[in-house]
Amino acid sequence: MSKGVEWAIHTLLNLAMLGDDKPVGSAQLAAGHGLPVAYHNKQLQSLVKAELLTSTPGPRGGFRLARDPDSISLLDVVLAIEGNGTLFRCTEIRQCGKIGELSTGGDGSTACAVKRAMYRGDVAWREALAAQKLSDVQKELDIDDPSVTTTVRRAFGRD
Amino acid sequence: MSKGVEWAIHTLLNLAMLGDDKPVGSAQLAAGHGLPVAYHNKQLQSLVKAELLTSTPGPRGGFRLARDPDSISLLDVVLAIEGNGTLFRCTEIRQCGKIGELSTGGDGSTACAVKRAMYRGDVAWREALAAQKLSDVQKELDIDDPSVTTTVRRAFGRD
DNA sequence: GTCTAAATACTCGGATACCCGCTGTCCGAGTGGTCCGGG
DNA sequence: CCCGGACCACTCGGACAGCGGGTATCCGAGTATTTAGAC
Prior knowledge:
The structure is a homodimer. By secondary structure, chain A is mostly helical.
């Protein structure tokens, strides 16, 4: 899994902790965690396409959360960055080679058993991530370090 | 996830369906599903290192299952091919940049909340794969197409 | 003083190189089988 | 006929290229602000 996922989650959490609706520029967001500005900007565009962020151009522009943190799951973020493909990709090799040629019994309607089995793992992963909203992670973050919100606000020049 | 995982699972299943302990050469295993021989051989070596297969060199040599199919989980196969790393890699960017520098409150002992949250998804995925053994998939495969075992045996020149 | 309009500075957005890891291929090391010669 | 040794064919194992996607970077399109000028 690409680093962009970690970057996106932290960035979204920072925006959630700021709370207000003032846009924050890509440069500021990247500076918050010392990330390469231009590439991070590219990831933010992916989040905009996925409708997790809204962008406003021009001076005083930047990015805002498109929805409340309790309606954005970690799965949403992962899919926005990685694309909505599955972890395991079935190539249907069961239909190739000698075995594929000799195979005749099963009807072609049923999906490959290997595919089904691997997809069960995929579904478990997705459900676990979908169950966790940004607001949940934000709460945990606050429990670990109650001063984190103040720190973030200060890092972005608020207060 | 790399294709090698799909290849490895099908190959192990084929060996399980053959049942006997006669070694099968890398070339035959690859021909079973029309895979590139040399590269597939490379993957088989990974399975040997993970102690899922045993290899015997020389003429009449090849690969055999190292354990019973009911003691090999899909997770074992995935980790053997992909390495035992986690899906989500935490880079600790929370400690970098402006926010990292200003952050002081939380004790360094607790892991990043984002890391913990993502690892929950990782654990769910691993558990779902660990719960499914090769024998289970083999049974499903046999239900979908009762003639599959015969087909595989024939494809490998048995009977 | 106020309205208008142009210049400006700052932002996002997409097009362009770079690099690491999966993919694919090759050849060498090692082993068991086989064949030939001798007893 | 039986035994021993050398040859050989076949196997795995690791070392060597090729390519695609993530990574990183730059420059152009667009907009709100600012500012200068005219009324």
